[in-house]
Amino acid sequence: EGVFCPLSSVRTSLPAPMFSRNTISVFSILKKCIGQELSKITMPIVFNEPLSFLQRITEYMEHTYLINRACSLSDSTERMQAVAAFAVSAVASQWERTGKPFNPLLGETYELIREEQGFRLVSEQVSHHPPVSAFHAESLVGDFVFHGSIYPKLKFWGKSVEAEPKGTITLELLKHNETYTWTNPTCCVHNIILGKLWIEQYGTVEILNHSTGDKCVLNFKPCGMFGKELHTVEGYIQDKSKKKLCVIYGKWTECMWSVDPQVYESQKNDCYLVFQEEVDRAVNDDADDMPDVQETVSVVPGSTLLWRIDPRPAHSSTMYNFTNFAMSLNELEPGMEGILAPTDCRFRPDIKAMENGNMDEASQEKERLEEKQRAARKERAKSNQEWSTRWFQSGTNPYTGSQDWIYSGGYFNRNYRNLPDIY
Ligand SMILES: *[C@@H]1O[C@H](CO)[C@@H](O)[C@H](O)[C@H]1NC(C)=O
Ligand SMILES: *[C@@H]1O[C@H](CO)[C@@H](O)[C@H](O)[C@H]1NC(C)=O
Ligand SMILES: *[C@@H]1O[C@H](CO)[C@@H](O)[C@H](O)[C@H]1NC(C)=O
Fold first, then answer.
1. Where, if anywhere, are coiled coils annotated (predicted)?
2. Which residues contact 151 (CB under 8 A, 6 or more apart)?
3. Is 314 inside a domain boundary?
4. Do 188 and 162 form a contact (C-beta atoms < 8 A)?
5. How many angstroms is it from 313 CA to the middle of ligand 2?
6. Is the C-beta atom of 210 inside 6 A of ligand 3?
7. Atom 2 in ligand 3: which residue has the minimum CA distance?
């Protein structure tokens, strides 16, 4: 298993810069589709980024050091703080990423082993309608297991696209016999037709400690009319008697801090006005510009830094605003070709072509793969065959009781018998 490159030698840029979107007008395509589910609309490939959604969810692992930190802490409140920082950091990679990842094909898989960060991950597209991606990551030294299944429900609102990530994320800290679960906030891409594209995340994320019923509540604030709360995340950790143990605050695009609740209340003297923005996004034709209030997080004295975002590399702006971590995800590292499952995203010819800057080829290949998938589905229907998933089984999440996909194990034994030919 330890055959792949150490982190220090994975690539830090893509083979080619991105194609400019400026010349494309999609208004005529999209005008007819208001209110529909986006998965039913064919978007021009120029709005994609050269990663599969399976790779995009792997970006949760960028800040694995926060899970490792949680494992190493003996104080349970501090562990919860590290887990909260991890949950926020996991969506930070979406900042300025307006490209749409490729929809995974049914049966598509992705694996990532990062010895320096101490984890390995496998994921599989387990359902096509609705599109469900299941992932399972584990510590290489047995400290944690991190898994989930995500159903990104996309809605097109005329001027914006909203992605509601349905599904539960579960983190088990094995040494501490602790399990945490949460769901990600809703992500919205504004101005997909005119104006400047920008990204907002909003909603409440509740991280539950299933051993005690203690929880951390994080409120990702919508930006509001004057942008005062743009990117702001604010919340607290409470014990089961609802006593606030600490306040957690910051921005998902920047950094997160924690502080004593009393200190926070006494220091937070600038009275926030909370504007309830109710904009009818589909009716008004003007662009919803991103408010340009950009002051950074004001730190309350006595706070502890939980996490700070890494700066994007300089060439990121010509490469889909990828982070360094994202740049490496589709790389076929030396030695991988003979070892990866043939269903691995890195073998997808459309993503590969787009990454290399060949947009026409990418578009043709994407169409071919989708057609091949449709034909295979028809074949199965004709012979009354059910699709069976390979590495995950449908089941119940033992902590939340909700429907989930559970890893059946064995992927890294690398027995690829009977894998479907999807490319
Ligand atoms: C979570 O549950 C464990 C196990 O019962 C407990 O020891 C710990 O205090 C809890 N931690 C938090 C932060 O709620
Ligand atoms: C990258 O970020 C810039 C600055 O916010 C933005 O104008 C651009 O549209 C983004 N590009 C992509 C591909 O998301
Ligand atoms: C872990 O926690 C569960 C549920 O609280 C309990 O039933 C089990 O005995 C614990 N195991 C250990 C090793 O502490």
1. 352-386
2. 130, 131, 132, 133, 165, 166, 167
3. no
4. yes
5. 14
6. no
7. 177
Contact indicator for 200, 214 with CB cutoff of 8 Å: no
End-to-end CA distance of the chain: 25
* Ligand 3 atom 10 nearest Cα: 177
Measured CA distances, 36 to 61, 112, 153, 158 (Å):
32, 34, 11, 10
Regions of the chain short of the pLDDT cut 70: 1-8, 20-43, 192-195, 224-228, 268-295
Strand ranges (E), 76-158: 100-102, 109-114, 119-127, 132-139, 144-156
pLDDT of residue 352: 97
CA distances (Å), origin 251, targets 125, 201, 347, 363: 31, 11, 36, 37
Query: Which residues constitute the domain of residue 393?
Result: 10-200+335-412
Specify the pLDDT at position 209. Answer: 82
CA distance linking residue 211 with residue 194, whole number of Å: 48
Cα torsion 297, 300, 304, 310 to 10°: value is 10
Cα–Cα dist 51/60, whole Å: 14
Answer yes or no: is 147 within a domain. yes
Burial of 247 per CB tally in 10 Å (0-12, 13-18, 19+): buried
In a domain, 345, yes or no: yes
**Cα–Cα distance between 97 and 113 in angstroms, integer?**
24
Q: Tell me how far apart the alpha carbons of residues 84 and 78 are, in angstroms, rounded to a whole number.
A: 10
Q: The tokens 């692992």 sit on which residue? A: 61
Count of domains forming the chain: 1
57 domain-assigned: yes
Q: Answer yes or no: are the C-beta atoms of 13 and 327 closer than 8 Å.
A: yes
